[in-house]
Write a structure and sequence with these properties.
142 residues; alpha+beta; Ribosomal Protein L22, Chain A; 3-stranded antiparallel sheet; two-stranded antiparallel sheet; 39% helix
Length: 142
């Protein structure tokens, strides 16, 4: 058994206004389809602040999916969750199909960084893998 490790990196950028428009247009139906209860409860404040926080979480979900590299169908949005801790930092939690993909890839840990400024929100997800499988070792997905 090899003790070699690899790193996978995923990034994504989301326009805050697009998330705000989805929340306004579809309301709870959009929120329940894309976000977990914890994620929605973590996004507090004015509608603009909530939209920016939700957009950053959406970017984190997309970045995580880039790290997972699904060959077939994409995991459910809610199986990729941004967990906000009381001290303010965030981690990623996977369940269902997303967790199975991480296990298959040998992903031992995920780190996430979220940011938003003006109309843009972004996230970077870094995965530490016990072993790397597949043609793309390390590096960022496009």
């Amino acid at each position: 058994m090899s003790t070699e490790t690899a790193i996978r990196v995923g990034t994504d950028v989301v326009a805050v206004h697009q998330v705000a428009e989805s929340v306004e247009r579809f309301g709870p139906r959009y929120l329940q389809r894309v976000y977990t209860e914890h994620e929605v409860m973590s996004c507090r404040g004015t509608p603009a602040v909530k939209a920016a926080s939700l957009a950053a979480r959406f970017a984190a979900k997309e970045a995580t999916i880039k790290v997972l590299r699904p060959a077939g169908h994409q995991p459910d949005w809610r199986s990729v969750e941004v967990r906000r801790h009381s001290e303010g930092w965030c981690t990623m939690a996977l369940s269902g199909h997303a967790a199975a993909l991480a296990d298959q890839a040998g992903i031992a840990d995920l780190a996430v960084s979220l940011t938003h400024d003006g109309d843009m929100a972004a996230a970077v997800v870094v995965a530490l893998c016990r072993s790397e499988t597949g043609p793309h070792e390390g590096g960022e997905d496009a």
